[in-house]
Design brief:
The protein has 306 residues and is of the alpha/beta class. It is built from 8 helices and 15 strands. Strands 1-8-10-9-6-7-5 form a 7-stranded mixed β-sheet. A 5-stranded mixed β-sheet has the order 13-12-11-14-15, covered by helices on one side. Strand 9 and strand 10 form a beta hairpin.
């Protein structure tokens, strides 16, 4: 709490929305009339939204519709619920892919602050938010910003999300702005490849929850032939990750690789790598926590001014 204002970090992923303490699917289904099933229902401006029904379709511009604004309200409400409050002044700390930050951050900030206040109901509780300000930071880097002193020598950071993979170098504890890359090679590409392969081999359309369990844990309660097909496809996807990293100069004998984001579990479950030189951060909320830390650090530098 700074000057009566809560700093809330939000990682607006294509697969999941993450805050410092919560994670939920980034889907939004809108209704003009109250829907029958009301789990995770948000009511705003006389419209009804079911949060987390499915993943958000990949788009390079997150401001093309109102979905991420509605998801922001849900994310803030979840953090306020943890604090057991229903009214607050809020400073949003968010981010964008590395190579998009400089071009899109001003527009994304205006998008998040499009209304000075918001009154809505989420999961049966009324909330009142006063949006005070916002900061936009680079994805991936935020997850390791508080531990830069550990990045001695040459290091590559890979933030593997649902829609994109962000790559940057951190050399002698300093990020290299000229060596940042964004690739459309998120885990959703693997999901699509698995679905296509299963349809080709067995003519089946497998439920997304089964795929997610295999990707997260390496197994599921399904027959061996389906599990083998999924595992083989996931292994090829992970090989693709390392192929792209090598195209950007990755050499495990010359540098360490730090992996953040949901794709880290895929490397752990299906990849072949040197565990002494590849460090995988399992905390799915690490980037959102990093946003909060960077915003709080900036506020302290400004003498407490939000």
């Amino acid at each position: 709490m700074t000057n009566n204002t809560i700093v809330i970090g939000i990682d607006h992923g294509y697969g999941n929305i993450k805050t410092a303490h919560t994670c939920f699917k980034s889907g939004v289904a809108a209704y003009d009339k109250e829907p029958t099933f009301k789990n995770n229902m948000l009511i705003y401006n006389d419209r009804y939204y079911i949060i987390g029904e499915e993943h958000k379709e990949f788009i390079s511009d997150k401001m093309l519709d109102d979905d991420y604004y509605i998801l922001t309200l849900a994310a803030v409400a979840r953090e306020m619920n943890i604090r057991k409050i229903t009214s607050a002044r809020v400073h949003i700390a968010a981010g964008l892919p590395l190579t998009w930050v400089s071009e899109q951050k001003d527009n994304f900030k205006r998008y998040l602050l499009q209304n000075e206040t918001a009154d809505f109901n989420f999961k049966g509780t009324d909330y009142h938010i006063e949006f005070v300000s916002a900061d936009i930071f680079p994805q991936g880097f935020s997850a390791v910003a508080d531990s830069l002193r550990e990045f001695k020598g040459v290091n590559m950071l890979a933030d593997i999300g649902n829609g994109t993979m962000n790559v940057m170098y951190i050399n002698e504890c300093k990020p290299s702005e000229k060596k940042c890359f964004t690739e459309k090679y998120g885990t959703n590409q693997c999901m699509l490849a698995v679905r296509e392969n299963l349809m080709k081999l067995y003519g089946v359309n497998i439920d997304e929850t089964v795929l997610e369990r295999v990707i997260k844990t390496g197994t599921a309660d399904i027959s061996e032939r389906y599990l083998t097909a999924i595992t083989e496809t996931a292994s090829e996807y992970v090989k693709g990750i390392f192929r792209i990293l090598r195209e950007h100069g990755y050499d495990d004998e010359l540098m360490r690789l730090y992996v953040v984001g949901g794709g880290g579990c895929m490397i752990k479950n299906f990849g072949e790598y040197n565990s002494e030189r590849v460090i995988i951060n399992d905390d799915i909320c690490a980037t959102a926590k990093g946003y909060e830390m960077l915003a709080q650090r900036k506020i302290r530098r400004n003498g407490g001014v939000v």
